[in-house]
Every structure is written in structure tokens, then in C-alpha cells.
Amino acid sequence: MLKITALAGGIGGGRFLRGLLRAAPDAEITVIGNTADDITLHGLHVSPDLDTVMYTLGGGIHEEQGWGRADETFSVAEELAAYGAHPQWFTLGDRDIATHLVRTQMLAAGYPLSAVTEALCDRWQPGVRLVPMTDERVETHVVVDEDGHHRAIHFQEWWVRMHASIPAERIVFTGIESATPAPGVLDALDAADVIVLPPSNPVVSIGPILAVSGIREALSSSTAPVVGLSPIIGTAPVRGMADAVLRTIGVEVSPQGVAGMFTDILDGWLVHSSDSDVVPHVEALGVRCRAVPLLMSDIDATSAMASAALDLAAGIRGRDS
Amino acid sequence: MLKITALAGGIGGGRFLRGLLRAAPDAEITVIGNTADDITLHGLHVSPDLDTVMYTLGGGIHEEQGWGRADETFSVAEELAAYGAHPQWFTLGDRDIATHLVRTQMLAAGYPLSAVTEALCDRWQPGVRLVPMTDERVETHVVVDEDGHHRAIHFQEWWVRMHASIPAERIVFTGIESATPAPGVLDALDAADVIVLPPSNPVVSIGPILAVSGIREALSSSTAPVVGLSPIIGTAPVRGMADAVLRTIGVEVSPQGVAGMFTDILDGWLVHSSDSDVVPHVEALGVRCRAVPLLMSDIDATSAMASAALDLAAGIRGRDS
Predict the structure, then answer these.
(1) What is the pLDDT of residue A318?
(2) Which residues of A touch B72 (CB under 8 A)?
(3) Residue pair B313/B268 in contact by the 8 Å Cβ criterion
(4) Residue B80: exposed, middle, or buried by beta-carbon count in 10 A (0-12, 13-18, 19+)?
(5) Of the candidates A227, A177, A218, which has an alpha carbon nearest to the alpha carbon of residue A36?
(6) Is A82 in Cβ contact with B99 (below 8 Å)?
(7) Does one domain contain both A184 and A305?
(8) Are A155 and A49 part of one and the same domain?
(9) Are A85 and B72 a contacting pair at CB < 8 A?
(10) Across the interface, which of A83, A98, A108 has its CB nearest the CB of B98?
(11) Are B1 and B27 in contact (CB under 8 A)?
(12) Which pLDDT belongs to residue B321?
């Protein structure tokens, strides 16, 4: 049975994985989820990326929105606002809150996040094994300049409240130095036949996962092909604000710019059909590159993307090429 | 300005206090609330009696039900059930959960329950100063005999899940030995012109309040008249299951039975009109007694009850008699 291990952020990761499940229905898929955008809101431990993947693959996602629950209600949020509770820039839906209550209570009882995630997935049956990158607390903070004052704010505040409108001067993963991979992470990388980087945000979704001690090394030393899909088409992200964070770390907003971040681990890289001109530039980095349609417009298109990634990997393993 | 201090449980207490506010609109009313039926559910600190009083006086109560929020929704509870989260015998409404989130988060941040209650009341403006009996944790547990096994369960489980259908062998207020009155409690008793015991459950609502170190002594030594209203009419409680807990502690289920629990603190006692025959028995206990209508069927009837209690107190103070 083909063993696939994928690193994933939230919306893009979840949608791509839905296509991967369709493209490789018999594969054993492990997903290493980003937890650096986790945040404590109203005393609840919220794991936006893990939940987005879980809801997307488990059939609970709000499809149009891409995050949060379908058929959501907002009574709790209304009441929290009536109490003047902060923050008010992040609205938690009622159904979503139940997930956070279960998580927060289990964490308080001493269960690690990986065990909590497994328990939550027991309900959602996402069809993949979803493992957080680490059981330790890591939070992405963004340093912004507000009227000459440098202030570090949680990534979610910058992303959700400010819509990344103020430039991020620096991006910091607090707690990353001491974070170790959650149980199962290194094993899944070690056992993988293929390792996939979905078109998630390379800086704040894939970045923190690779920054956990030992994970980047496991990918670079892996004998399994590591293939990624560009989240950038032309000079803009397909979705989200990856361009803003790429600029912060001084990386060109282009398919080859992002590939350049991962040359130590990448064996293959898919760019969008319209970016076929960059293929030689990526291959010059020592990374096999193909141009295929990369718009996740529906499940068929997404499944075709996943198949293209698996084909590229198979080619790299020498079976198809 | 007349200073009234009342001890209160949940539904009966809240409804009576609404009548008291109508009867004495210019009085300064402090309510010492029972916290012994507090319970932690899904990691949330729930204070049923405090909230019932706050919602009732603040206009947020579900009127027919007597507890919980008006216009309530239950998305969180549905989802918690889908996760198989326990307990499932206590359903928290979404709007109600917001209150518990604010409380739980403030407690976790180090605020005492009294400060949390004040913050919550800042929204609800109940028209009284609501103070928990103690900032320490006290929980009412009930010892039941299940097939020969003695088991202590939380009062809420016995009351809500079992509907008090198994006899309570013993009632224990865990933590009561070390509990001290919350800030403002003894001051409010000391400053009171009248102290009122609403028709709350004498065992599990009034009982724990009086069991907090110093409170019973403050009532018995007070120069202000202490007047109470019987929660029992004839041989049955007006509402609730006070008879079950009275039997546990070996007290006769009658207006004079309940009065007998409080002879050290009571100066006056109101019984229902139909119980006028017990008046001499109560007076034989050294407690001034009057028979008046005690059914809180509407706000006018409840206000008349409160007026009767204040009249009785005034008579005891020697102004009217």
C-alpha cells in the first residue's frame, strides 16, 4: 500500500488533501498539520489549521468560506460581544466552539494535542491520519510597526483583524526552539513512499512544520521523493495573502521563488500551466519541475493535481521515467 | 435608604427578588448567592444559582422554564453530543455558555468569583448587588446507595439526571470547612436593616450559605430582623424537590419544620394562608409568624409577598407593632 505523508496548513492543505484522497483512494495517508497558528480565544485552545483539515475531509466544512463549520450558528459570539469580551476580531461559531471545548478540556486533563486530535478525528473520520507537527505550544507572531512602535502580535490578529494590511517586519515562531515532533511525525516521514507539500502558505503553514526540530532534516535525508505544488501562480497567491509574508522574508513572489525556499528538501515541484516558462529555472535549482493546471476549482481538478504530484514522484523514483 | 440583604438560591430566590425589587424600589439590596451547586461541565465553571438570579433580574431568563436563557440555541450541545462528550445529562445552551466562558476565563486569569460575578452583572444590571457566598470552591455532593454501593455524586447529577429519584443518604458540602465569606458578605449582613430568607430550598440553597464560616453567626447576632418565607405549603414544596432533601436531613416537610431549622437566626416567618394553623406552633419556637399568600404566581403576588416580609420585619423592629 502506497504510504503518503503530507505537510499541511489549513484551507489550501485541506482542499488539496481531498483531491489526494480521491486520486489515491487506497493509499495510507498521514498529514502533519501546522499548529503554529493555534491561538487561545476566550480561554479555548483553537487549532485553526488542524480543524480546517479535519472539517474539510470529514464533511463538516463551510464549503464557500473554506474554514469553519457548515450550518454554523453564532449565539455564543453574540453573547460574548454583549459582555464586551475580547478579542472581538475573531468570531467563533457555536458548532466550532464545541470542538474547542473538547480540545481545551482534554489538554487541561493532560492529554497531548496529538491524542486530542486523534480523539476529535474519531468523530470526523477524515480518511487520513492527522497528526499535529508538535505537541508543544508554538505560536506565530508578527512584528509590526505601529506609528514607530514595534509590537509583536499573534499571526491571527495580523491576518484576520488587519488583513495583513500593515507590513510584517518579522515573523517569529515563539516556542519553536524547544518544540519536538509529535509522536508519529518522524515515523510517518521515515515510512513514506512519497512526501507531499500541498499548495499551503510556504512561510506560515509549511514554514513552522519544517522548523520543528528534526523535521526538515527528515525530509532532506528521506529516500522518498519530496514533491511540492506551488501556491503561487504568476506573481500572486492562488488564495490568501502568501505574498505579504513572502515579502517579509525577502522571497520573490513566484513559483520559483517558493521552490527556492525548499531546494534542500524538494525533489519535484509543480507549477501552474501558465508558468511553464519557469520550469527550466526550477530545474536549474536541481528540482524536477512540471507545469500542470494548479487551480483547485473543483474536486476533479484537485484530484488531477494530486495525481500529477504522485506521477512526478513516481517518475523521480524511477518507475515512470 | 433601607438596606436589605437576602440569601438566595436559584429559581425561587430569583423570582422572589424580582418581587422584592418591585416592593422596595428605593432599597439598597444585596443578595448573597449560593454557589454550592456550582459545577464544572466541559471545562466550564457553571454557577447555576448565581446565573439564575442574574438572568431573572436582568431580563435574560427563560420565563417558563425558570432557568437558562430566553431565545436559547443548542448548537454547542448538539456538537458535544456528536463528539460523545460527557456528561450528557446537563445541557448547556449556547447563550448560557458565553457566560461560563467569560467566568471560566476570568477565574483562570486569577479573578475571584466575586469579581467575576460583578463583571457579569455589569452587563445584566440586575438592580441588586449580587455577591457569591464565598470565593472558595464548595460543591454539594449527595451520597446515594446504588445496588448496595455508596457513591457520592454531584448534587446536579442527583437533581438533574436522577430527578432525586434515589434517596439521598447524606448531603455533603465539600470544601465548606475552609470556605470563608466572599468580600462584602459580612459587611452586607452587618449593615442590613432587614435580612430576608426567600423561599429557596432550605437544605441545598440556604443551607450552604449559612454553613460558610461566620455567616450563620452574623445572622444570629444581627440586630436587624431576620425574616423568612416558607418554601413549603402544607406538606409539599411550592416548586422543586425540597421534600427529598428535607427527608434526608430528618426535617419534617412542613412550614414549621423548615422554620425549626433556623430558630437561632429567624425573627419572623411567613407561612402560606392555608397554613394559618401552624402559626402558633412557629411562634412557640420564638419566631413571629404570619400567614399570607405565598404563591409567586405573578409579579404582583410576589411583590405582595415581599411587602409582607418587609412589614413583618418592620413590626419586629417595633415601628409598626
Answers:
(1) 76
(2) 75
(3) yes
(4) buried
(5) A177
(6) no
(7) yes
(8) no
(9) no
(10) A83
(11) yes
(12) 39
ipTM field: 0.93
Residue A314 confidence (pLDDT): 96
Contact state of A44 with B123 under an 8 Å Cβ cutoff: no
Distance between CA atoms of residues B318 and B316, nearest Å:
5
Residue A321 lies in a domain: no
Q: Give me the DSSP letters along B293-311.
A: -----SHHHHHHHHHHHHH
Is the model's pLDDT at A320 over the cut of 50? no
Q: Calculate mean pLDDT across residues A74-78.
A: 98
- Min CA distance, B179 vs chain A (Å)? 25
Instruction: Answer whether residue B8 is part of any domain.
Output: yes
CA B227, B128, B41, B181 torsion: positive or negative?
Answer: negative
Report residue B16 CA to chain centroid gap.
10
Nearest chain A residue to B72, by CA: A75
Which of B155, B159, B129 lies closest to B54 in space, CA to CA?
B129
For residue B228, what are the β-bridge partners? B197, B269
* Residue appearing with cell numbers 404570619: B290
Contact A101/B120, CB-based, under 8 Å?
A: no
Chain B residues within an 8 Å CB radius of A93 = 75
Closest chain B residue to the Cα of A78, Cα to Cα: B95
pLDDT averaged over 10-residue windows placed end to end, chain B, 321 residues: 96 96 98 97 97 98 94 98 95 98 97 98 98 97 91 92 91 96 98 97 97 98 97 88 91 96 98 97 96 96 98 83 39
pTM for this predicted structure: 0.94
The answer to whether the Cβ–Cβ distance between B85 and A108 falls below 8 Å is: no
Range of the domain at A160: 139-177
| A253 and A311 both lie in a single domain | yes
Q: Note the pLDDT of residue B320.
A: 40
A105 to chain B nearest CA, in Å? 5
Using CA atoms, how far apart are residues A210 and A192, in angstroms rounded to an integer?
16
Q: Compute the nearest-CA separation of B176 from chain A (Å).
A: 25
Query: How many degrees, rounded to 5, is the angle at CA B51 between CA B96 and CA A104?
Result: 45
Q: Are residues A120 and A147 in the same domain?
A: no
Q: How long, in residues, is chain A?
A: 321
Pick the residue of A39, A62, A79, A105 with the most B CBs within 10 A to test the interface with B by mutation: A79
Q: Which of A73, A94, A117, A121 is the best residue to mutate to test the B interface, defined by the most B CB atoms within 10 Å of its own CB?
A: A94
| C-alpha R_g of chain B | 19
Domain count, chain B: 1
